[in-house]
Amino acid sequence: MVSKEKYTYNERRNLPIIVWLLNRTFTEHELDYEIIIVDDASPDGTLEVAKQLQKVYNPSHIVLKPRPGKLGLGTAYVHGLAHATGSFVIIMDADFSHHPSSIPSFIRIQKETNCDIVTGTRYAGQGAGVHGWDLKRKLVSRGANIFADTVLRPGVSDLTGSFRLYRREVLEQLVKEVAGKGFMFQMELMVRAKAGGWKVEECPIRFVDRVYGESKLGGDEIVEYAKGVLSLWLNV
Fold first, then answer.
1. Fewer CB in a 10 Å sphere around the end CB: N or C, the chain?
2. Which long-range contacts (C-beta less than 8 Å, at least 24 apart) are formed by 123-130?
């Protein structure tokens, strides 16, 4: 079984479409799956929409694990993982920046290489790319990756990406070691995975800027990123 974990915040309009796409993808490829939705009390009514989707697709496929407030991205991953039952866990956003059409490629790469983690990359391989960002945002993202690559030498081309497939037991072990929060959480997972000798492969993805909703990247998390890179360099 594949456990698909989604962190939502103000994703009321996105959620029905992305769940439909996920269901279609898993059904067409005859994959057993569950979608774990972690919502942090979104004021736009995301949870109410999720409850309706649970009735449509069955509670065995739509698992709701809401939290009482906006507690951050990293802790949302840990919260969702605690309720996952699949052998593999896929983590992605609900805003269409990560398209479900890439999931079969993730699964194929894992089967072919028997790796522990498949991480999506916007910057390497045929078909990889970013759409919907202006030049400034592209430069910021690319600069962040170059900075992290220079300091940390993680061995992957897109350290700040968050679309990944993990072997469940590997992810469970890694989250016990991770100290970072927010967007640093994903980056530290990869750095520790490489340091721990886990096998990592990359899958080219097309990243598209969000259609609806609000970005989960705030000023505090940007500051945390810069501090976190240096902290990882010192501690991992």
1. N
2. 123/157, 123/158, 124/157, 124/158, 124/202, 124/204, 125/202, 125/203, 125/204, 126/204, 127/204, 127/205, 127/206, 128/204, 128/205, 128/206, 129/206, 129/207, 130/206, 130/207, 130/208
pLDDT at 233 over 70: no
For residues 141 and 123, give the distance between their C-alpha atoms in angstroms, rounded to a whole number. 10
State the chain's mean pLDDT as an integer: 84
3-state secondary structure of 159: coil
Contact between 166 and 117 under an 8 Å Cβ cutoff? The reply is: yes
- Burial level of 98, CB count in 10 A (0-12/13-18/19+)? buried
d(CA 230, CA 98): 28
DSSP string for 45-70: -HHHHHHHHHHHH-TTTEEE--BSS-
Angle subtended at Cα 86 by Cα 10 and Cα 113, rounded to the nearest 5 degrees: 105
Give residues with Cβ within 8 angstroms of 93, minimum separation 6.
Answer: 6, 7, 162, 163, 210, 216
DSSP for residue 40: B
